[in-house]
Structures are given as C-alpha cells and as structure tokens.
Amino acid sequence: MQKTLKHSLILASLLGLSACGYVDPYEEAVYDQDPRYCYRQLGGIECFSEPVHRDAARLVSYYGRHPSRVNTPSPPNPVEPARPQADLTPPHLPIGWSQPPRPR
Fold this sequence. Notes:
Elements: H1 2-20, H2 25-29, E1 36-40, E2 45-48, E3 59-63
Antiparallel strand pairs: 1-2, 1-3
C-alpha cells in the first residue's frame, strides 16, 4: 500500500512538472527565428519585433514565441507635474521709471 502511494505521488509530481514546461511544436520550430507580432492599426496591419502588450486585443498574427511567454514590462512610475513657483520679485526698472514703458 505504501509503495503504490509513493509511486503514485512520484508519477503525479512528474506529470505536474512536465505540464509546466509545455512548448507548442510550432514554437519549437520557430524558436531561433526573428519573432514578428502583427497588430491591427488604423491604416492597416503593422508588425513589430517585440509584442506590444497594451495592444494585445488587436493582435492579428504572430511568428515566434507566443506573446504571453514574453515578459510584460512593468508600468512606469507616475510623475507628478512640477508646480510653478510664483516669482515675487519686482521687475527691474531703470532709475526714474515708475512703470515699464508701454508698447506703441
């Protein structure tokens, strides 16, 4: 009883590990080739050498690894706009002028 339980656990773990390393036969055949990922754009179809993850819904076709197997870049950190600082110094006026000259 113990032997069969032990063998079944080993067999189950091997099957589980083999499922993690699953690669499609297509991906094995084109592994060394330059990948192309084509997306539907406004003017037609445009292809890139790396997947554009933000356009995943518009993916038309790909050649190479599946886009889900390529690492997704982390989103950029949000940048807060710089607050303009008020310039409180009075404008420099030549001696004797109380107001700047008006344009004519």
